[in-house]
Amino acid sequence: MNSIQESKFKETGVVTPNEFVIAGDHLVHTCPTWEWACGDECKTKSYLPKNKQYLITRNVPCARRCKQIENCEVQENIVESEDGTEGWVETYHFDSALSPLSEKVSGISLEGNLNSLNVTSLNGDNHVLNSATNENSNVINDCANYDNDDNDDDEEEGDAVDMDAFVESGLLEDDSVTIYPEHTKEKKLSSSSVDEILKTRTYDLHITYDKFYQTPRLWLYGYNENQGPLSVEEMYEDVSQDYAKKTVTMESHPHVPGPSMASIHPCKHADIMKKLIQMVTDGGRDLGVHMYLIIFLKFVQSVIPTIDYDYTQNINL
Length: 317
Description:
The protein is α+β, with helices and mostly antiparallel strands. The protein is 28% helix and 19% strand.
């Protein structure tokens, strides 16, 4: 199938190979975490420049599984505009009152003296600030006593050690006078501390040009916290369950040999892009083709909501 040559992205939502390169150049310029890649030489596509076969960004964090946000009681928050005519949806909004993390917020209070710092939980109306204020006089007294003790020590000390005589005695280079601890105790994390460590997955994301559908296509390959490759089922954990094994399937990469990668099928991409472009046009704004990939990345975020790749500029649709 021959690629289209004339621009039809506003009317149909599709782009030419040349427009894909223009949009890719703008994405790389706007968001430097993305870059062009060549791929395997034997898989080079003649309708694209050799040094701009596809786009890639690496080590994109993914801290949560999709089930964690799908089971959350609060996922969206309707934000009203100032004039009251229309609003927008703040996706993945979390109410701190429902979060278990609010129960673990801690503060530091001063008790006794400066050498003992105790952590107290913030529960109900227990304010650490008041506790610290009540102990203020004790702290001041401790500091005053410390200064007096320090002055007494200075008076009891004799003459300073003659450093020249100390060096000549050879004690400076004598390791036998150095005291080493007989046993070094290793600090180990408790099992509860290990469980609370956030294990973050990372993903490499690729954007290729699909010649048949004449749209971009997103590919992803994941790694665990030890940089080992994720299994197919593990990668599906980071895909919205409405799309897993349906819109998102495992396919062979068109430019890179190796294991199959998860890919968002582009059969609906043109229709969705057409609608988004029409929304911008109806709002009285003109959308250039260079913005195509930035908008494309925003709409595929609904498929992989926990993979935090979208650092592009804000687009008001």
